[in-house]
Amino acid sequence: MAQAAIELIGINKSFGAVRANRDINLEIVRGTIHGIVGENGAGKSTLMSILYGFYQADSGEIRVGGQPASIKTPNDAIALGIGMVHQHFMLVDNFTVLENVILGAESDALLKRSITKARSELERLEREYGLEVDPDAIIEELPVGLQQRVEILKALYRGAEILILDEPTGVLTPAEADHLFRILKQLKEQGKTIVLITHKLREIMAITDTVSVMRQGTMVATRETRKTTVEELAELMVGRRVLLRVEKGEAEAGDVKLAVKNLTVKDSRGVTMVDDISFDVRAGEIVGIAGVAGNGQSEMLEAISGIRRAVSGSVMLDGKPIDLTGAADPGELRDRGLAHVPEDRHHVGLVLAFEENENSILGYHDDERYLKGPFLDIDAIRNDARDKITKYDIRPADCRLKTANFSGGNQQKIVLAREMEQDPGVLIVGQPTRGVDVGAIEFIHKRLIAMRDQGKAVLVVSVELDEIRSLSDRILVMFAGRIVGERGPEATEGELGLLMAGVERQEAAE
Amino acid sequence: MDMFNAIIQVLDSTIRLSVPLLLACLAGLYSERAGIFDIGLEGKMLVGAFAGAAAASVFHSAFIGLGMAILISVAFALVHGFASITHRGNQIVSGVAINFIAAGSTIMLGQAWFQQGGRTPALAPDERFGAIIWPGADALRGVPILGPIYSELISGHSVLVYVAFLAVPFTWWVLFRTRFGLRMRAVGENPAAVDTAGISVAWLRYRALICTGVLTGIAGAYLSMVQNGGFVKDMTAGKGYIALAALIFAKWKPVNAMFACLLFGFLDALSIRLQGTPLPLIGKVPVQLMQALPYILTVILLAGFIGKAIPPRAGGVPYVKER
Where would I find the ABC transporter domain in this sequence (chain A) (predicted)? Predict the structure, then answer.
């Protein structure tokens, strides 16, 4: 008889006027992997934070192992064997792995004994679950995949039987995500219960036993994973039918609009990140750059958009060369018709403390349309912002709202609207749908294809292989700073995966 | 031999002059390591100095004076905590406010209580912390080199001097060898990690501020009850700010802090010693320039001679649970 590890009964939670959770009922069976999907803002994280004692529910009951439980603080949750791996890691970056693991779970006032104990405990966990990590490594020197492992170890060290993971793969490379899933399966085999919160449906299908769908604060459905489909889940999440793969016609590639020549870029430590690459993007085509994060894509984007100085290389924009080794000026590139949607919208693309309308002209504020003499023409800017809001379906439709208050998907739309509406000849987009909901992904993909059909040259860099395959007319694969292969959109995932992993071209072709 | 004696004298006064800086610097270290910027070290030292001297002269006891100095200084630290932890106010504004209140209230209360123009009555020797002469200090004085080092540099200081220097290894031990230290360092780097680990961020930060208050209290008591025989208005004279500079220079590490404060103390001692003395090659240097030396050094060091100083990452940011 399957036993419930956790039962949530009638949970309600409001933040001011926002009802984050409404009358939620959920049962999680012991020893299973239970997925919770929903768009950003559907209330998944709130629900889990209530379970972890980070917030208090306004009403409702929590039962752990059949017993009613009162979880008022994370301490209570930890005592009940509930552990959580947060989306943004709760680690102290300049502490060692050991120090992070014992923080809050020290055995006495002096550290020595706790550290000795944790060291042997970590060795045991490493043996049992294959959770290898150097206990004396400093967190900030570890790759994100390992940092996440430390979070899991933290929970296990505290005796967690139920492990909640909030969007665990958002920051991981595909290989790291696969490794994580293997670890989760192993934990399940050892009898642990796992709750996986995500908005990536593929992960749900790949690893969960049961899946619950949340929408706008309510629990809309719970399904056995093997009896459902991605399409059904997507529809339940968004509340309408969603196209997971955007339909598009044949590309009609024209003249070369953007030509990158012999681009070499080093990072701040002097390591060569982009190694002498050249490629073209023609009018009316989308070129996708695939690759595991950290293989030079970010540096390449920064160099082409003029944010980072290149060691060598130039770009041809409409046949006129621009040297990238000097103090390339993003403004100059922009004036010449190159629009850039940066990978990291929070740090590079937007000023989160600004109002939406201010962000919607950022970088174009010197344009005559937005000026009245030496002053900004506030009315023109707001009207312009309102037009973009309508056209790009940005919600909430309020151009005076602080940008930080928009969801990730809508923030991305603000940046896209700003860059696309300048009618650039060349559009380069980094991670177009990172942290964006299923519904908005569909919209963004459609806009990108519309740009292509208008005869623009579009360069898309993404670590999401599905996205690259569904958008691109040509796919370039980057590995270790080089372009290691070019494929058409019909290339299989396996073929691209091998290229992304750095397997030589000939081998991949076999 | 004159040269040697001169050096010993300068080093001796280096120690005396660095003590208030060191205590204040360690005080700031506790607070800033826990993520609370404390520009109010100056003010807390000042109220400590006033409370210490006032209580010592009224109760005729150095120890009651010290206790009162610590008590009042901790109270001011808690006010800073109430504003910046409980109410998530701006830590700089709160610190500046404390400095103003300290400067104004000490003069006003001093005048109201003692009618000596804001001073407290001169303390009798038994109301101050006198020098502790180590065994054999007088007998060894005659021994060349080592004798003066022992009897002048090591022996013959007030108990608070030893407290200050012992506070250095003690602070190091607290920071890196105790649970409290681990949590305190963590809360200054990433309070959310501490919160999710089930530890109260606010209580931890309050405790760190209490440590700060104790140390600034001792620093104040040193100024008014050891260095000086009573309280004089504004007697901290910017030492709280120099201590903050030393803290940055020391990259928030206790042992570095000691060396940084000794360096500032040395410059101070040197500037006193060299006043009116013609220097070889340069000739006579204006007094004002010598007095300005420690401050000039502060500016130069902070302007970039110290490499990259990374402050505790959550410093200055009130902790709010994410929504």
Answer: 6-241, 258-505
